[in-house]
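Hey, can you fold this?
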Amino acid sequence: MPFVPPVRLAYLVSHPIQYQAPLLRRISAEPDIELTAFFCSDISVKPFQNPGFGQVIAWDVPLLEGYRHQFLPAWGQRDRLSFSRPFSYGLTRRLREGGFDTLWVHSYARLANLLAITTARRLKLPVLLREEATAFSLPRGPARRFVKRAFMKGLDRLVSAYLAIGSANSDYYRAHGIGPERIFPMPYAVDNDRFREAAEKARPESGKLRRALGIPEYAKVALTAARLIPEKGIGDLIEAWAETRKTMAPEKQCRLIIVGDGPLRTELEARAAVIGGVHFAGFRNQTELPAFYALADLFVLPSRREPWGLVVNEAMNAGCAILASDHVGAARDLVRPGVNGEVFPAGQTARLAQSLMHLLVDDARLAAMGRASRDIIAGWSFEEDVVGLRRALASVLGR
């Protein structure tokens, strides 16, 4: 049912995010939802230093087109993101003068966001919270778990509804005493149409990319795309790859492509050079990634800590089978073992090597899993996001 009158929805997030921009455009297309995004920083709309990639990044997709947005003023510099920076102000006046009905906040892990949640409740505005947290997103000892439970109990008094990005995130909320009636699925999704169409367009040119990387025509390709930092588990993947290379028949020798950059690159390249069959492609921007997905048969995400992993969504749109650790949030919802891939215990390189071998030696099974990935991801899209958001809004506004 349409909202009458239209819902005026304020959205607070740290900065324009490449994955979120198309979602905000999609929500803004709803005739009865008037969305305005408020950003604390403009760091991502210009070239910026990304510590995870170890280089200056300039996104090559539009971040601000197709939806209303404002950048909040801040004290001090706005080119650094942390718990307390930038320290934004002015949201209270904008919420009051804009006649907003609801505030949607992305993440509670920033001081400005916590203050905004408190402000919204003081203004009697319902608060929707979308957060990535899972049971495995950050290891905690008994003392930290006690503090987190106390924090969540206090936060829950201020939040009206929770927008769950997936099953692991939903389970996290329930584990902290939040009733299922207040949790609404709003899955982490990508622009499926864009990635699917871009991969199909790139597929006829895959031979050129193979030759540029020095990959034989016959070789099956495993691909990973990640920042080269410890928690992404790329070291585990290289160790498992070494075992796979030892046991795989010569005519079945495959290749591994590592897309990404970061502080561990030099170390990882040195380890991979001893093994062989590993190609480092460096950082690739959003419009470049589909060509790599189109080339790959299997996408691997071996992270030891990954609240979601949107690269899994992207690879599935290109028809890749998926191999992911059980500490990848996306694995719980998008990887169906034996159907479109496999899941292995995070950090267990022997199990990872077994799964690599099992998947890469059977061409027919690998192709069937790739087709299944495309079918599964078709039902995990921005359309489901809009449905979940509308249900949450109807619940908190009583419409």
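Oh, and this one too while you're at it.
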Amino acid sequence: MVKYYTDEILLTPGPTQIPLEIYQSMITKAKNTDLDEDFINFYNNLRNKLKNLLNINKGDVYIMLGEAMIGLETAISNTVAQGDKVLIIDNGVYGDGFKDLVKMYKGVPLLMGLDWRKSADPNDIDRALEKNKDVDIVTLVHCDTPSGILNDLSQVSKVVKSHGALLIVDAVSSIATTEVSFNNIDILIGGSQKALNIPAGLTIIAVSDYAWEKIKKTEYQGYYMNLSLWKEMFDYKNTFPYTMNDTLIYALDASLNNLFKEGLESVYERHSLAKKASLKALEALNLELYPEKETYSSPSVTAFLLPKGIKDKELRELTWKKYGVMIAGSWGKLEGKVARIGHMGYQASLNNLLIAYSALSRSLNDLGYNNSTTNVLGAIEESFP
């Protein structure tokens, strides 16, 4: 059983609970990351591990210092020139949020107006691109955590590339929970604080050859998020553009080693089982899944509608302060309507799901929503062998 640093447990869809062994990996003698050749070699080896995780056969990958939002803005700032039309696959809070970044960099966002309770239909995207042949870039959020929706990355990416557009994918909440392949993707963004179970502070960003062509034409003038600077300084001069955080790099290495030790197929199967068990628990509680169909639901987070009369803040405060389990509410137009339980990374286990739904069941009972905790826990155990 995984040992945690605290008795209180985070079962939110990020930041996630950090196992003790990850904390231990960060306890090391300080290095000068700018001058230590061994550390630079260690960083390069870590990039190769990420290529294996993300199925990157051709393209570059960098680990940047900054929370995952840095990666999203980097992707837009380096590719969107003034007047560029960007198709926004907007079936969720973060999916819709790409429009604001595009506007900041003088691009023209084209919203699809998709249903937030459904995965994006590749046929709808095909029609949108056929109608708007001058679209330069398409943005997609693989897993939109506020709604618990998972989009079909494989099919969507094929459609986008068939139209010759550049595809930017936010895979922050899907990496290490389901297979993510860099094929047909131009910029892929990941983050440290989700299924990788390490502190917030690192962004993973993969860049295709096609994306580099667009980056050169865009001529982004900033410094910290400048991908051309990363290529020039690190790939050609073997030095970082700015001082890297060594402890977070060691934590990421420990996390990836654990994934490969377990085996990626086993990791993905464990998340699939966690999703199945979580959905069975909702059914036992008579709670409504927010995604319209179970097939739309993510293996890393379960989002459900709050029962009538149950207030979001009260429920979350009770589960945390009385039962020591932190669950999440939602954002944007879903705030106050949807609650969420994260089962990503180490959280995707029978033990953690039993803890999460035991706390949720008891809190709902305390608030007057009657249910059987025994039935809920039995449903989880039957679904997660």
